[in-house]
Write a structure and sequence with these properties.
Helices cover 69% and strands 2% of the residues. It contains 21 helices and four strands. It is globular, with a radius of gyration of 23 Å.
């Protein structure tokens, strides 16, 4: 942090700077323009809207012109006006749903109406709250360097997911809470990787024949997705591969599966830290150049630059308010899951794999879709793949480790149906990312694939009462015996 930009920690030339930047050359960009971007990324400069070079202020959080509000402190009227207008027309349309927030809280805390009504209101109310979190994250990100901004925006967007996981883990007595958490982990990955990415490809393809993105974003993302898919599959494969002829009891298999899951969670967390170091330290110049390119081809950039911005104080306040509302809505939502399942007959797999993840990832989906529409495909891809990687390598391992610290046997042993879909989805998306180009057909096919998975999840039956859908019996007493018993019965 103390070394100059483009240098190592000892002041020597950075090991990867020049080579990595040249490796990111976009063939569709004029050579002089591309070299200018590389020079700006190395020297810490950028061009303003008049083409004049402006050096970005030094420090870990540099305020850029595009992120400045021209004001200080907190101004209530400006704050309400700016947050209502939001960052895009899609986000502004979502703000119409704000009346559902007080309605959902009132219905829940007065215990009025059937569970389906309380769940539906809370489900809809979560969308504008998640949108506010996404908007606050984007305002914070606009005041930071490119890579730190993308990471901040993605992390802030994951707050809804983390809150829902923790509420499910600690604030409910649902017997199937581990099932829903595990299903929501995979569902969140699938929703971002297939639905969100597919909608981004489709939106970008509607305005241009093909949308091009940098090979660095796709190659790094694809490699991490394959690694995380393999890591998440190991506990499931282990628990389904050991027959009783090996001399182990069901309880011993469950215990070993839980231990493996915890070790995998630690390894995934370490891998995520190394990935962040790769992005933020050794190869930051490469990613800065890519995002600088995307900013310059933003078709609505002049409109965004003219919009009023939140001050740093206002952005933080909006984030705090949104997190508080999301926590309250999450409590109302999660505590209605079991009554809704009983009233409507919706299966646990559909609830955990489809319904819960859709509302978790609302902020990322809206942000990425707006970026893809504006031809900022690298930004959109970073949000889609970045949010997917963060769920698999940070959020999921964290909830497993937190549960471990509280003595809860939450593991990563999934149904064969679900882990198979995950691996196939990663392979499918990796194939689409291979040529660094996308069009509306590829986006449409990704969305269709997600719809097919949703249909299968809708018809997937809920296990009998007391047996875990993804492992375990009686919720807290066991971590994987349901999986093992069904595997043994099928042998």
């Amino acid at each position: 942090m103390g070394a100059p930009r483009g240098s190592g920690s000892d002041g020597s030339p950075e090991k990867y700077g020049r080579v990595s930047l040249q490796a990111s050359r976009d063939p569709g960009l004029p050579q002089s323009r591309h070299d200018d971007l590389l020079t700006q990324a190395e020297n810490g400069t950028s061009n303003n809207n008049n083409g004049e070079k402006k050096r970005r202020p030094p420090g870990p959080i540099r305020v850029k012109t595009e992120g400045e509000s021209g004001r200080r402190g907190f101004h209530p009227l400006h704050f309400l006006k700016i947050t209502w207008k939001s960052s895009s027309s899609i986000s502004r349309a979502v703000n119409i749903l704000w009346p559902f927030v007080p309605a959902a809280l009132a219905v829940y805390y007065t215990n009025t109406g059937p569970a389906t009504l309380r769940f539906s209101l809370a489900y809809i109310a979560m969308v504008p709250c998640a949108n506010l979190i996404g908007f606050a994250g984007s305002e914070l990100a606009a005041k930071m360097p490119h890579m730190l901004g993308v990471l901040t925006e993605t992390t802030v967007g994951s707050i809804v997911e983390i809150i829902l996981f923790l509420v499910l883990l600690f604030a409910t007595d649902l017997e199937n809470r581990f099932n829903i958490i595990r299903a929501a982990i995979l569902g969140s990955i699938l929703a971002t990787m297939l639905l969100c990415l597919g909608l981004c490809f489709f939106a970008a393809g509607l305005r241009r024949e093909t949308a091009e993105f940098d090979a660095t974003i796709s190659e790094v993302g694809t490699g991490l997705l394959l690694m995380t898919g393999f890591g998440l599959a190991i506990p499931t494969i282990f628990s389904h591969s050991i027959p009783t002829s090996y001399g182990l009891t069901l309880q011993e298999i469950d215990s070993r599966t839980t231990q493996i899951s915890r070790i995998i969670a630690i390894l995934l967390l370490i891998s995520y830290v190394v990935f962040i170091w790769f992005q933020m330290r050794t190869h930051h110049g490469l990613f800065d150049a890519i995002f600088e390119h995307d900013e310059k081809r933003d078709q609505d950039g002049h409109k965004d630059a003219a919009k009023a911005k939140l001050t740093l104080t206002e952005a933080i306040i909006s984030l705090i308010v949104a997190v508080a509302l999301v926590t309250l809505i999450a409590l109302a939502l999660v505590r209605q899951i079991e009554p809704v399942v009983e009233e409507t007959g919706i299966s646990d797999p559909f609830m955990g794999l489809i319904l819960v993840p859709l509302v978790e990832k609302a902020a990322e989906h809206l942000t990425a879709l707006d970026e893809a529409w504006d031809n900022q495909v690298n930004f959109a891809l970073s949000h889609c793949i970045g949010a997917t990687i963060q769920t698999a390598m940070l959020n999921a391992p964290l909830v497993v480790i937190v549960a471990w610290g509280r003595g809860l046997p939450l593991d990563l042993s999934f149904e064969i149906f679900e882990i198979s879909i995950l691996i196939l989805a990663i392979i499918t998306v990796g194939n689409y990312l291979r040529d660094q180009k996308s069009d509306y057909l590829e986006g449409f096919l990704c969305v269709v694939t997600y719809v097919a998975i949703a249909v299968a999840a809708f018809y997937f039956p809920t296990p009998p009462h007391g047996e875990s859908m993804l492992g375990g019996e009686g919720g807290e007493m066991s971590g994987g015996s349901g999986v093992v018993e069904r595997a043994l019965r099928g042998m």
